[in-house]
């Protein structure tokens, strides 16, 4: 049985160096190994985790423990997903060490400026089963565990919920947008916990899971009613008849406003977005050309297509519970 | 000549304004025997339903701003309206008194939705979506008041006002539409009958009405009431 490390999570704040960008979708952690695509997931229903004893300015060990409990609770409380978490105690073991413990704690990594947190997952390359996952928060950055946040300090709970999403098997979602204003480029907004960039220090608006996050965790750990209560959209993204890889496909439920997305993940341009509530959907396709392809596809050998224009499908797609709406073909044009 | 001229003038005044100022015309005709509505009426016909704006549905992100509920960031906008169109209708009513009647009505139409997607932050081209028509059935109940003293055209035409409520069912499985709405409406109109017999309207006739409708629920992006206008013309038969 071969095992290898997979680095999956980076939450950074290198906002000034980015151009305008966007968008949307849940994204599962996977690896292509020997021609097989392996999706990562825990096999046991309840995952135990430990909290490292180290405290940092603004956050005590007890506060870190409390914040992580709330972060995991958000994922555990998803009604259409079956995954649980249990605190197993504090430990002196450091995160990011392969020791059989799922350890969460602070590490001082000043050389990783702008990196707020990271989740390191070890998995079985044959089955995709996660065997260990550690989360570290960079103590070189200013943190706050205050309920209402603190000016000039990053909200630990927001980042903790994001890292917990990697912990359960989700990759980054591009559901966010940077805008240029008065010569500065800043994150204007996001609609997925799994967006790879954090809100400004002091802002606490992105602690709760969004529809994209809920659909993602539910697709990994579907509860009994998930398959019958939700539907899916399948189709292709093509340019001049050729399939595109890595195109973002966003589905907007026009009744609820929920945004859920997915990627085209084959050379044929095939995509699938699951976990959709029944209703009418507007479909939008776009390239991930602004935010950095490596935030979503860590394997540089993956040929992600980005040279096309954002495009709306000129019809609604109707989703009904328990079924898949197929043949949703979106033709895009070059930029 | 002068009297005849006055009579024609009076008819025109009643015809144009009778729906709005029946009391004035009633005073002018109070010395005449009052013709009453028939005991029962039925009718079938066609109508026109005006377009109705629906709520705007923005695709929004949580704004990167202070506070637990920051202002949203609009990614793109979706606007939708039902388009105007024809409606087929039918009704049956009884007149409980000389002036007051009740009726039940049924209408069927196939309106379509026009959706426009605009203001994309990445300049995706604006897109219009016109859905296939969906089936809309409507059942309503109304109470009417006839202004018998404002009859004109040799008493064969009577103005009336009405108000009522009903239910609209909108359905199209292909578009994922399956909605139920309540409607509340008020309007005015007139009925014309070919005969007057024993001081009651009889025989074949025409009915025209215009109505203002409030729809609560149904195909929409948001909760709330939407309004539209409709006009109907039906052929009727009075018993």
Description:
The complex is a heterodimer of chains A (335) and B (239). With 335 residues, chain A is mainly beta. Helices cover 13% and strands 36% of the residues of chain A. Chain A contains four helices and 22 strands. In chain A, strand 14 and strand 15 form a beta hairpin. In chain A, helix 1 crosses helix 2. Chain B is elongated, with a radius of gyration of 24 Å. In chain B, strand 12 and strand 13 form a beta hairpin. Chain B is 10% helix and 59% strand. In chain B, the strands form two sheets. Chain B has an eight-stranded antiparallel β-barrel with strand order 1-5-6-9-10-11-12-13. In chain B, strands 2, 3, 4, 7 and 8 form a five-stranded antiparallel beta sheet that branches. With 239 residues, chain B is mainly β.
Q: Let me know the largest β-sheet of chain B.
A: 8 strands, antiparallel, barrel
How large is the count of helical segments of chain B?
2
Helical fraction of chain A: 10-25%
- Radius of gyration of chain B equals 24 Å
Which sheet architecture does the biggest sheet of chain A show? 7 strands, mixed
First-residue to last-residue Cα separation of chain A: 45 Å
Structural class by SSE content of chain A? mainly beta
- The share of residues in helices of chain B is under 10%
Head-to-tail CA distance between termini of chain B: 38 Å
Task: Work out the number of β strands of chain A.
Answer: 22
The average pLDDT value of chain B, as a whole number, equals 82
Give the percentage of residues in beta strands of chain B: over 45%
Q: What ranges of chain B have pLDDT less than 50 throughout 5 or more consecutive residues?
A: 1-29
Number of strands of chain B: 13
Q: What coarse outline of chain A follows from CA principal-axis ratios?
A: globular
Q: What characteristic shape of chain B results from the CA principal axes?
A: elongated
Spatially, the strands of the biggest sheet of chain B line up as: 1-5-6-9-10-11-12-13
